[in-house]
Design goal:
heterodimer, A: mainly alpha, MetI-like fold, 76% helix, disordered N terminus, B: alpha+beta, five-stranded antiparallel β-sheet, 20 strands, binds adenosine-5'-triphosphate, binds magnesium ion
Chain lengths: 290, 353
C-alpha cells in the first residue's frame, strides 16, 4: 500500500496511456504490417503459369518490372498524373481553403458542406457520372454539337486529361479540409501586421501565410499524393482500358493474370515509389519555405 | 512623423452605423487616446486609419497625403495589436527587420536599424530569440519595436497593454509614453481603461455609440464635460436628478434646494458631482449647498474612503475623503453635515431615452 502511494502521480497515468495505445498498435500491426510482410515474401516467389506460385527466393519479378518499358511507362504515367493532380489540388485548394477559413459568412458551414459533399458519392459512382457527361455521345458533346459550336465530338473521355481532372475532383476536398483547419489556426492579426508593415498580399503570403500554413500544406500534399498514386476507380473508368496506372495494374496482375508474385512486386514498387516521392516532396516543401 | 486628419469618417455595416461622423485632427507628435466603453467603435476607427476597414464615408489624411483609398501596405502606419501578432516563425530580429525588407532597404542598413529599434525598447541581445521564448511584456515590446523600425508616419496602438498584468502595465505605460515623446511620434491609442488614457494622452477623445462625445485635455474632460455621458465616463460622479426652475436654482426630486452656476440648462436636469469636491463634517456648513444626511455605507479603498450619504428618500451622494488616519471617520447611521460649493455642480439636461 505504502509503495503504491509513494509512486509519482504521473506514472499511473502513463501506464494508462500506454494501455490505450495497445489496440491501435495491434490493429496496425495485424492489419497493415503482416499483409505487407506477406506481400514482400510473395514478391520474391517465382511464377509458373497454372501453378499460381512457386516458393523461391528471387528478384526476377522486380527485374521484369524495371526492364520492361511497358511497366516503366505505367509507373512514370502514374507519377506524372499524381504530381499534376497534387500540384493542381494545392493551387486550387489553397485559395478555397483560405476563403473557407477566413470567411465570417453565416453560411460558412454550408460552404464547408459543399466541399465535403462530393465525398458522399463514391469514386466509382462519380466517375460513372462523368462518363455519362463527357462521353462522345454524352451530355456535354451533344449539347455543344446541338448548338452547332463543334462538328465532331470532343475527345474528353479516355484521355490522361480526363483522369487528371477526375482525380483532382476526388482529392480536392481532402486538400481543402486539411489546409482549412491549419489556416484557421493562424492568427488573422499576423497577416494584418504584415500588411501594415508594408507587405503587399503576395509578399505577405510568401513570407507569413505559407510558412505558417506549412504543416497543413505538407499534410495536404502527402494525403492527396498518396490518394492519387493509388487511385483505382477513376483511372479505370475515365482512362479506359488502354490507360494503365499502377493501381489498376496491381489489381489486374492479381485478379486477371493470377500472377501473385508479380502482383506483389508491382505493389511493392508502388508503395516504395509513393513513400520515396512523399518524403522527397516534404523535404522540398520544407526547403522552399526557408 | 506627420499629422493625421479624419474628416467625417463613417462606417456602416448594413443598417447599423458603428462609427458616425468622426472628425479629428491629430497634431504632429501628439499622443491622442480614443476612450470609450466596449463596442463604441474605437477599434473600427483605428482600423479605418490603418486601412483594414474601408470607410463608408469620409476621408483620412496622413500629413498632406490622402490615404482613404490606399491599401494598408501603402499607408506607412505602424500598428501594434492587442495580441501583439508577432510572426511566430521568425526571430525577434527577423520580426523587426520585416518591415524594412518590405521597403527594400539595403542589408547594411537593416541591421543597425533593427539593433536601434530593439535598443529603444530595451531588448538588446534578444534578437535571436523566437517570440514564444519571450514573456508577454517582452513580446509587447517587440511588437512596438517592429512598428517603430519602419519609422511610421503615425503609430496606432489598439489596447496595447490589456494583456499585461497590472504592475507591468504601469511600467510599460510610462515607457511607451517616454518613447513617444522622445521620438516625437504622432500616436493614436485605443483603450477603455480611463486611468491609462489619462496618464498617457496629450489629448483624449471620448466616444460612445460610434460618435465623438468630447475632445480635450484631461482637465477639459474632468472639469467641463460636455454631457452627462462624459461626466460619468471620465472620473467618478454622483448624480442628483431634479429640475432647474430658475437660473442657478436646482430643486432635486427629493426636494433639496441647491445653488449651481447659472447656465443654459432649464427644465428637467441632472446634477453631477465629483465625490472629492464634497465636504463632510462641520466645515460643510460654510458651503453654498449644505444639508444633513445619514451615512448609508462606507467603502474603504485604502488611501481613500467613500462615504455614501443618504440625504432624503430620493437623493444620495458619495463623498470621497482621504484616509489620513487623523480625520473623523463616520460610521453607518451617523447623522452628518454634507456640503459642496455651487462651482462643484455640473448640470446637464436630463437625457430622455
Ligand atoms: N465586421 C463587422 N460586421 C458587423 N459589425 C461589426 C463588425 N466589426 C465591428 N462591428 C460592430 O461595431 C461595433 C464597434 O466595434 P469595435 O470593435 O470598433 O468596438 P470597440 O470600441 O473597439 O470595443 P472594445 O472596447 O470591446 O474593443 C460593435 O458593436 C461591433 O459589433
Ligand atoms: Mg476594440
Amino acid at each position: 500500500m505504502a509503495i503504491a502511494r509513494d509512486r509519482p502521480a504521473g506514472e499511473q497515468g502513463s501506464f494508462t496511456a500506454a494501455g490505450l495505445l495497445v489496440p491501435a498498435t495491434l490493429f496496425v500491426a495485424i492489419g497493415l504490417l503482416v499483409p505487407i510482410a506477406i506481400l514482400l515474401r510473395y514478391s520474391l516467389n517465382a511464377f509458373e503459369p497454372g501453378k499460381l506460385m512457386v516458393d523461391a527466393f528471387t528478384i526476377a519479378n522486380y527485374v521484369k518490372f524495371f526492364t520492361d518499358p511497358f511497366y516503366l511507362q505505367v509507373l512514370w504515367r502514374t507519377i506524372r498524373v499524381s504530381v499534376a493532380c497534387t500540384a493542381a489540388c494545392l493551387i486550387f485548394g489553397f485559395p478555397l481553403a483560405y476563403v473557407l477559413a477566413r470567411t465570417r459568412s453565416p453560411y460558412k458551414n454550408l460552404l464547408v458542406m459543399l466541399v465535403v459533399l462530393p465525398l458522399f458519392v463514391g469514386n466509382a459512382v462519380r466517375a460513372a457520372g462523368w462518363m455519362v457527361a463527357f462521353g462522345s455521345k454524352g451530355f456535354v458533346n451533344s449539347t455543344l454539337m446541338g448548338m452547332g459550336m463543334i462538328s465532331t465530338p470532343l475527345e474528353i473521355m479516355y484521355t490522361e486529361t480526363a483522369v487528371v481532372i477526375g482525380i483532382i475532383a476526388v482529392n480536392l476536398p481532402f486538400m481543402v479540409l486539411t489546409l482549412q483547419s491549419v489556416i484557421e489556426g493562424i492568427d488573422r492579426n499576423v497577416e494584418e501586421a504584415a500588411f501594415s508593415l508594408g507587405a503587399p498580399p503576395m509578399a505577405m503570403a510568401r513570407r507569413v501565410l505559407f510558412p505558417l500554413a506549412l504543416p497543413g500544406i505538407l499534410a495536404g500534399v502527402i494525403l492527396t499524393f498518396i490518394l492519387a498514386m493509388n487511385a483505382y476507380a477513376t483511372p479505370v473508368l475515365l482512362g479506359g482500358p488502354k490507360f494503365q496506372t499502377m493501381g489498376p495494374l496491381v489489381f489486374s496482375t492479381f485478379a486477371q493474370q493470377n500472377n501473385w508474385p508479380f502482383g506483389a512486386a508491382v505493389s511493392f514498387v508502388l508503395m516504395t515509389a509513393t513513400l520515396v516521392l512523399t518524403l522527397l516532396s516534404s523535404l522540398l516543401i520544407r526547403r522552399s519555405a526557408r | 512623423m506627420a499629422s493625421l486628419t479624419l474628416d467625417r469618417l463613417t462606417k456602416r455595416y448594413g443598417d447599423t452605423t458603428v462609427v458616425r461622423d468622426v472628425s479629428l485632427d491629430v497634431r504632429d507628435g501628439e499622443f491622442l487616446v480614443l476612450l470609450g466603453p466596449s463596442g463604441c467603435g474605437k477599434t473600427t476607427t483605428l482600423r479605418m486609419i490603418a486601412g483594414f476597414v474601408p470607410p463608408s464615408e469620409g476621408s483620412i489624411r496622413i500629413g498632406e497625403r490622402p490615404v482613404t483609398d490606399l491599401p494598408p501596405w501603402k499607408r506607412n502606419a505602424g500598428l501594434v495589436f492587442q495580441s501583439y501578432a508577432l510572426f511566430p516563425h521568425m526571430t525577434v530580429a527577423e520580426n523587426v527587420a520585416f518591415g524594412l525588407e518590405m521597403r527594400k532597404a539595403e542589408k547594411a542598413e537593416i541591421e543597425p536599424r533593427v539593433r536601434e529599434a530593439l535598443r529603444l525598447v530595451r531588448l538588446d541581445g534578444y534578437g535571436d530569440r523566437y517570440p514564444r521564448q519571450l514573456s508577454g511584456g517582452q513580446q509587447q515590446r517587440v511588437a512596438l519595436a517592429r512598428a517603430l523600425a519602419i519609422r511610421p508616419d503615425v503609430l496606432l496602438l489598439d489596447e496595447p497593454l490589456s494583456n499585461l498584468d497590472a504592475k507591468l502595465r504601469l511600467e510599460v505605460r510610462l515607457e511607451i509614453r517616454a518613447l513617444q515623446q522622445q521620438l516625437g511620434l504622432t500616436t493614436v491609442m485605443v483603450t477603455h481603461d480611463q486611468e491609462e488614457a489619462l496618464t498617457m494622452a496629450d489629448r483624449l477623445v471620448v466616444m460612445s455609440d460610434g460618435e465623438v462625445r468630447q475632445i480635450g485635455s484631461q482637465a477639459d474632460l474632468y472639469e467641463t464635460p460636455t454631457d452627462l455621458f462624459v461626466a460619468n465616463f471620465v472620473g467618478r460622479s454622483t448624480m442628483i436628478a431634479g429640475t432647474i426652475y430658475a437660473p442657478g436654482a436646482f430643486r432635486s426630486e427629493g426636494g433639496l434646494e441647491l445653488t449651481c452656476p447659472p447656465g443654459p440648462v432649464t427644465g428637467l436636469a441632472t446634477m453631477s458631482l465629483r465625490p472629492e469636491r464634497l465636504t463632510i463634517g462641520p466645515d460643510a456648513a460654510r458651503l453654498d449647498n449644505h444639508m444633513r444626511g445619514s451615512v448609508a455605507f462606507v467603502s474603504y479603498l485604502g488611501g481613500l474612503l467613500d462615504v455614501h450619504v443618504r440625504l432624503n428618500d430620493r437623493d444620495q451622494v458619495v463623498v470621497q475623503i482621504p484616509n489620513r488616519g487623523d480625520v473623523f471617520v463616520p460610521a453607518i447611521g451617523d447623522q452628518v453635515e454634507v456640503g459642496w460649493p455651487a462651482a462643484a455642480c455640473l448640470v446637464f439636461p436630463r437625457e430622455t431615452n
